[in-house]
Design brief:
about 160 residues
Length: about 160
């Protein structure tokens, strides 16, 4: 895993001053409208609970062209991934600042379910928040929200637009 900046397993989040651990809320963010709905809901919950918000952006390892043996510009793809992650981080940071909420941003490569679960576990998250998939195929074969709710690592909230 490659965590962005200072979010690590031993991260001590600022927040509460009464000695109690502040709740940690992990939200999946891919830039889709439903993920921004989930981000807004999670930010509101973090504010109400005086907690910490961790936005997680995951890009998959699999490349469609690789399955067909098509030549592929991996350096260009990696640069595009980094640019997308930087844009999401900037937008999420701005939205959190507008609310007066500190934000921790994590960028990962790999399976989205595994990455969110791993980060939630490592940060002892109290809640995982994701947006409901709007894709028809996900309703037929299973979505991220369904895979997460079948696990028992932390309570999961699926935000439906």
């Amino acid at each position: 895993m490659t965590h962005d900046s200072a979010v690590t397993q031993s991260q001590n989040f600022p927040g509460r001053t009464d000695g109690a651990a502040a709740p940690v809320i992990v939200v999946g963010l891919d830039g889709s409208p439903t993920s921004w709905d989930a981000f807004c809901w999670a930010a509101g919950e973090a504010l109400r609970a005086n907690g910490n918000l961790v936005a997680v952006h995951v890009t998959p390892w699999s490349e469609p062209a690789a399955a067909f043996g098509v030549p592929y510009d991996y350096s260009g793809v990696e640069k595009a991934r980094q640019e997308i992650a930087a844009e999401l981080k900037a937008e999420a940071t701005q939205r959190a600042q507008d609310l007066g909420l500190p934000l921790y941003f994590v960028s990962e490569h790999g399976d989205v379910t595994r990455a969110l679960t791993s980060i939630a576990r490592s940060l002892h998250a109290n809640l995982v928040v994701v947006g409901r998939s709007a894709k028809l195929l996900h309703h037929l074969v299973g979505s991220l929200s369904h895979r997460l709710t079948c696990r028992h690592d932390a309570p999961v909230v699926v935000v439906v637009p």
